[in-house]
Amino acid sequence: MSQTPHYSHHEDLTDALLAFTQLAREGGLNVGIEEMIQSKRAALAGMIREPSTFYYSLKGIFCTNEEDIKVFNSLYYMFWQDNSGRAKEEQEAAPKARNKKRNTGSMVVLGAGNALEGEEDSHNTSGASAQERLQETDFSKVSSIDAQMLEELAERLLKQMSMRLKRKMKTHPRKGAIDVRKTIRQNMSRGGEPMVLARRSRKPRKQRLILLLDVSGSMDKYSFFLLRFICVLQAHFEFVEAFIFSTSLIRITDSIQSPNLQENLKRLSRQADNWSSGTKIGECLRYFNENYAKRLLNGSSTVIVLSDGLDTGEPLVLAREAKKIRLRTRQLVWLNPLKGNPNFQPIQRGMQAALPEIDVFRSAHNLRSLLELESFLASVI
Amino acid sequence: MNLDISQISHPNQLIELFDQQGYVADLELATIIFLLFRLEKPLLLEGNPGVGKTEVAQVLAGLLDTELIRLQCYEGLDVNAAVYEWNYQKQLLSIKIQEQSDLSLAQKEEHIFGEDFLLQRPLLKAISSTSKAPVLLIDEVDRADEEFEAFLLELLSAFQISIPELGTIKAIQKPHVILTSNRTRELSDALKRRCLYHWVSYPDIHKEKQILKKHIPDIEEGLADQMTKMVQLLREMKLNKAPGIAESIDWARGLLALGYKEINAESLSSTMGAVVKSASDMEQIQNQGLDNLITRSEAQ
């Protein structure tokens, strides 16, 4: 582009609006000819007479969420800026949008690294693509600056996921086979005419999900995010039981129930004096089997172990206890963050010992891999 | 009030009209409402709970002196609850009555699937209104399932509804549609593109004070001042549930009912339940110290 796009380069309103729509689309807004027509109608309805009403009109037509507004502001500022008659408020809004852009730049570098930070033109990195990359980033490689962004993103996406899962479980009150016997019985008082149809549907079996999270030193970087994942599951499903373990096992189901997650995490890290120390997976599973298994496990429950399998205990114990769990449950799932590495081989002693007993073996090293568990969880719950 | 929308030529007139109805609107909102009339497009209002999204629709209905038809969305909301339902009992009775008549099967069928047997739910009601265009409020649309969202598309773009037994019903008077969302999930692009969009944020100190005075005319200047500052501070504190405008109005009413003239540790602690709605938030505030909090809010 030889010159910055500006309305003064265009002959009439239609041309200028077309160019602006084009610019907005390149900037990442989901707009097209429809929006252009709408904005022209708005302009002709008198909104063009004042800068502020014109700005508000285009904003209402072009934006579809809060994030769009930031992108829109900077584009609007560039294209429609007239050095005299602009409302002050918009001038303030525009620099903010630019700061935002710089932030996403650092996320890009952090992610796949195929975009340069210095790239500064209208083809800005849209929020969506930066988020995409952040989802792919291995938890252990997230810098502290981006950790918060990732946290926010994780919270939002995981919440959406659990909402979808919840919906899938719902049975429809009006669906199900007609219960003829009950229908006749219920309609006796109406002379036997079937006015009200009684239906029956299968009562959903209550299935438990048991999560065991490894919080030992080697899992340090992952356990924080995985715990968050557990909290989300826990917050939305009543039948989730959660434990953390390293050298000993602690039940955390109750302590993560209160709504304030940050507080929970702080309290948990105080509570677990063994947080980030050595691992005795076998011993911990044995403790679980002895104390909780009978109460929690039945034929339809699923146990998910989140661990890298770096075990300092006796592998034979681990193999034996893992087998015990498998026999009592429907599925034993092992999520290993190390599996995200393409060169990963399950050669760790602990991992090798447990592998024969595992039904599902998957990775859990970034947000994407956690979100991909949705389809699996939907079949479990 | 009976308002002819074609008479309105500038959003400023709307600000004034909204003001008469007790709603403090800024130019941005007024512009969008103006476009809602002119472009005949639905308006999607997003924002935190308690910022007055729903009230926009109520005020609009009052302004136009027309019916407000409200559809509260919830998980599992389906076509039968939102659009139409056949009156099965009446149909069965009618079949029974007609048993002896010599109408043909086709005639009988036509009869029981007539409009007499149709129960109108909000969406159908909104487009079959004959007298005056109603205001249709689709509240908290983010709570409904995605399938339902897809169903809304036909209504929102063409203002028509297809009923298999009856055919397509087209709106006689295009309703003014307002959708609200708390953003608990992202709405589909298809739905959003059919709507005008407005993000309703928390008001600034000045606007909030205006709103308070509008709702509670006999509130004293000093108290309103103190209150708005405190509410602004509470919003910055990252509570689980930040107080909305509705909360601050409740709070003001509470303070006045108890006869408090100013905010001090005593009045704050006895009326805090009106603004702070969770135990952990209360705890957080107590930990900071009420006096400390009051000093900080005054310093703003």
Strand order of the largest sheet of chain A: 5-4-3-6-7-8
Question: What number of structural domains do the residues of chain B give?
Answer: 3
Q: How large is the count of helical segments of chain A?
A: 15
- Terminal CA distance of chain B reads 40 Å
Q: What is the CATH C-level name of the largest domain in chain B?
A: Alpha Beta
- Name of the top-level CATH class of the largest domain in chain A: Alpha Beta
Instruction: Give me the CATH architecture of the largest domain in chain A, please.
Output: 3-Layer(aba) Sandwich
The total beta strand count of chain B reads 9
CATH hierarchy: architecture of the largest domain in chain B? 3-Layer(aba) Sandwich
Instruction: Encode the helix/strand succession of chain A as letters.
Output: HHHHHHHEHEEHEEHHEHEHEHH
CA-CA gap between termini of chain A: 54 Å
Report the sheet-strand fraction of chain A. Answer: 5-15%
Structure description:
- The complex is a heterodimer of chains A (381) and B (300).
- Chain A is an alpha/beta fold and 381 residues long.
- Chain A has two domains: 7-136; 209-380, Rossmann fold.
- In chain A, 51% of the residues lie in helices and 9% in strands.
- Chain A contains 15 helices and eight strands.
- In chain A, the strands form two sheets. Chain A has a six-stranded mixed beta sheet with strand order 5-4-3-6-7-8, with helices on both faces. In chain A, strands 1-2 form a two-stranded antiparallel sheet.
- In chain A, α12 links the parallel β6 (302-306) and β7 (331-336).
- In chain A, α2 (33-44) packs antiparallel against α3 and α7 runs parallel beside α9 (220-236).
- The longest helix of chain A has 26 residues, at 144-169.
- Chain A starts with 12 loop residues before the first helix and ends with a helix.
- The model of chain A is unreliable at 84-126 (pLDDT under 50).
- Chain B is an alpha/beta fold.
- Chain B has three domains: 5-75 and 124-200, P-loop containing nucleotide triphosphate hydrolases (Rossmann fold); 84-120, no CATH class; 205-299.
- Chain B is 50% helix and 13% strand.
- Chain B is built from 15 helices and nine strands.
- In chain B, the strands form three sheets. In chain B, strands 2-5-8-1-9 form a five-stranded parallel beta sheet, sandwiched between helices. Chain B has a two-stranded antiparallel ribbon with strand order 3-4. In chain B, strands 6-7 form a two-stranded antiparallel ribbon.
- The longest helix of chain B has 16 residues, at 221-236.
- The radius of gyration of chain B is 24 Å and the shape is elongated.
- The mean pLDDT of chain B is 88.
